[in-house]
Amino acid sequence: MAEVLEGENDELIIKPLGAGQEVGRSCILIQFKGKSILLDCGIHPGLNGVDALPFVDTIDCEKVDLLLVTHFHLDHCGGLPWFLEKTTFRGRCFMTHATKAIYPIILSDYVKVSNIGLDQMLYSEDELEKSMDKIELIDFHEQKEVNGIKFWCYVAGHVLGACMFMIEIAGVRILYTGDYSRLEDRHLCAAEVPSIRPDVLIAESTYGTQIHENREDREHRFTSMVYTIVSRGGRCLIPVFALGRAQELLLILDEFWTKHSELQNIPIFFASSLAKKCMAVYQTFISGMNQNIQKQIAVQNPFLFKHVRSLRSIDFFEDIGPCVVLASPGMLQSGLSRELFEMWCTDVKNGCIIAGYCVEGTLAKHILSEPKEIVGLNGAKLSLRMQVAYVSFSAHADYKQTSEFIRRLKPPNLVFVHGEATEMIRLKAAIMREYEDDPTCMQSFSPRNTEPVSLHFRGEKTTKVIGQMATKKAEQGDVVSGVMIKRNFDYHLMHSNDVSGYTDLSKGNILQTESVFFNGHLTLLNYFFNEVTAGKLEILEEYKDGEGKLLRAFKVITIRVKIPVVQIEVLFIIFDILLFCVKEILSVVFKSCKRHVCRYDCHRCFRSANRTNRIGSFFFKDIPVLSIDGDLKQQYKVFVTDMLIDMFGQGALVEQKCATGSKLQVKADEAIAVVDLDEKTVECNNDDVHRLISSVLKRCTPQNWKK
């Protein structure tokens, strides 16, 4: 099987290294036309150390050209410092302005609160800081190009700065949604629907076929639960991530407290060591929020809350009565939220409201199954008597949003990621049912981790004519020739003089001179030169002594004949073509040498021929050598035979012996010709072949050698 050159393969590979039939450690590998892109590099919230990383050990990190990060959540960027600092990755990494501003805040907190030993830590704060220098910025709708990979991003909703990436390689477009939401909430815009149809859509499937309740009902149920818990004297714990849904919930609670004066003596705490930093970031990136926030900011900053206090540490918390505490992290793995949960879980008056998506293997997911007891961080068993409720404020697309998004884009290929296996398979089946009667039905895939999805795209290659060649309009049938430049996946045809202007290349000339020994007759040499050049040999100069000439062949090959040396000078512009021409000219020189001094008998000829063979990387076959002296009749026969072999091939000639001498039978396609070398006649049933061979006989007569 022929080997496919790198960059010419029509196979597109999509391989989840994480988030394949799971939620967590999002990391999707795309390979096409010799290019490799990673989409996100997260960690699994339910695992620790290297076990939490994507399966990047299955790829060659050094060959990854580009890494695109959609947003700042740990399951999408938590492994980024490790990947940038501890692997052989040398490509480029991009994220939006807001994501880069929040990324170090979130990951610094993760490093501090991780309940694992130093030997299991994936990276230090110093390595996190160093990774910042390797991250580049991209604006929404700004197109960038890296090694021929074009990409730009759209608003994804979900959290501040979250984006969807559109990637284009060799004309094939791939849209990666990351986490997205098509519903506008109190502060974020809904995800955009790109106007460009992608060839492949890689979409999250977090909620599968579930449908979210509408915003008003959800907010009412949430505030009612909070009201009930604090009214009975309980503590209400709301585990959240420091940035994202926390700000949405704070806006809701602050507004609810403003409307209910009876609650205003009950404190609301935003318990995070990052609270002040988070709010500063949100106040900085107001322009990335929806019109509702844009209008409010003209009057008053909505993130300067009236009823919310910051709580940096549990050491500063006085647990003396009912309160509402929003504490991170959102899945109760460790940190403030876990400490408060273990303090309050044994009291029936207290309550815990899970407001976001929970990954399998986390405490937040476990308590939703209503166990009677849980295991604390210190290993002790604790009774679970507090009220546990689930109100989803998770800004992920539900089935309605996913279905509508797919319907508007109509991608021919659909790959689901970021969803538990059951939900993902249900979603895939439901989407396929929607399109089962569609004649242009899409393909859909739900790969597991490290399971590749293989798609084939074969596009037409189009060349754009630029520079001075583009000034003249080509007509139908015109032959257009020039220098073709391939840059990544774009082809441009231009005049050789334009190469340095449109590329980093420069035009240069190589003059090569080859000298060979010659002891033959100038007349015969001149005749052979005319044969090779089809009569287009230019005589530039004739030397006075009559022993030499300065000739030009094929417009670029200079031949200096000065007995006993033939010197050939070539300006190599189109190497392969000129190499063939030089070969023919050197063959003529060797043919014209006297038989007794050929390159096999004369050390000078042999040395010249060997040197030429090395330079040109070709080998001359043993050619019969002619001399102007001796038996002209025999030389004529050899010459004609040699030319007919050149024209029709060795196997086309058969020698026939007869009483009057010898004849040659020549087979040319369907025609057969008989050539009498003594009588110089041709018999053939094909007029064209007859005329061609007759011309050879006439031109090879000794009388013409002196012309």
From TrEMBL:
GO terms of molecular function: 5'-3' RNA exonuclease activity; RNA binding; RNA endonuclease activity
Protein name in UniProt: Cleavage and polyadenylation specificity factor subunit 3
GO cellular component entries: mRNA cleavage and polyadenylation specificity factor complex
Classification via InterPro entries: Beta_Casp, CPSF73-100_C, MBL, Metallo-B-lactamas, RibonucZ/Hydroxyglut_hydro, RMMBL
Ranges where the Beta-Casp domain occurs: 246-367
Gene Ontology BP terms: mRNA 3'-end processing by stem-loop binding and cleavage
Protein localization: Nucleus
Keywords, sorted A to Z: Hydrolase, mRNA processing, Nuclease, Nucleus
SMART domains on file: Beta-Casp, Lactamase_B
Lineage of the organism: Eukaryota, Metazoa, Ecdysozoa, Nematoda, Enoplea
